Amino acid sequence: MLYLGKPQDRTFRCVLPLLLLLCVNMLTEKVKDLITKAQIVSFANWQHPVESIEIFQTADRDRVYLTDEECDRITILSPQTSSLIPIAKLLRDRVVEIIDEARAEVLVQFPNITEPGGGLYPAVRAEACWRDFWHYLRPVTYAIAGGQMQYTSAEGLKYMHLLYQELEVPLDAMAVGLDGLKAASLKRVEASEQHIIAPYFDDLIFSLKAFI
């Protein structure tokens, strides 16, 4: 099981993902520049009060999930998305088991990926990939909490693509992992809610698969 700490604890700062895992001193200037520009989510077009947007932006900047207190505040400020907040919190609280299922699917479809010569070898690359899954689910929970189905940053993802190319990230495996995150997440919500939640994953999945 991959343990990354309590995502709802604001004092917790997650382990850095693949993009930042390598020792900074080992990174080229090009990679360092791409890291500063790569991002998944944009809040530019979100229809929320300024305070709500600031809550989302702060969580994204700190690379953490929303806390219960922040979710409660968003509910007050943006009551139109209040019915979605419990789902975002549920996925946040089940993130470790969701990642475990996504990881298992990647290993089924790419059984040699963690072996010598595979795209996630040595072990440090594999562990970093699973941590990236943690970061993929994080902006999805923001989007759900904000009722924003279109949330990816075209500019930020362009740089993420370039960064992944530079680091030779196995994009086909990452895409399978994203599909796995979606499937595992949908299993954990009510059947009547699955069709509501699925589109929040599709924006990111479509964007990443465009890299392949």
Structural write-up:
With 212 residues, the chain is an all-alpha fold. The chain is 61% helix and 0% strand. The protein has helices at residues 18-21, 29-37, 50-62, 68-77, 85-93, 95-109, 123-146, 154-167, 171-186, 194-209. Helix 2 runs antiparallel to helix 8 and helix 7 packs across helix 10 (194-209). The longest helix has 24 residues, at 123-146. The protein is globular and about 50 Å long. The two termini are 28 Å apart.
Give a quick summary of the entry.
61% of the residues lie in helices and 0% in strands. It has 212 residues and is mainly α.
Q: What proportion strand?
A: under 5%
Strand tally is 0
Main beta-sheet annotation: none
- Put simply, the count of helices is 10
Task: Name the helix and strand elements from N-terminus to C-terminus, one letter apiece.
Answer: HHHHHHHHHH
Rg on CA atoms, Å: 17 Å
Give the low-confidence spans. Answer: 1-5, 10-25
Distance separating the two termini: 28 Å
Structural classification: mainly alpha
Shape: globular
Mean pLDDT equals: 89
- Helical content (DSSP H or I, runs of 4+): 55-70%
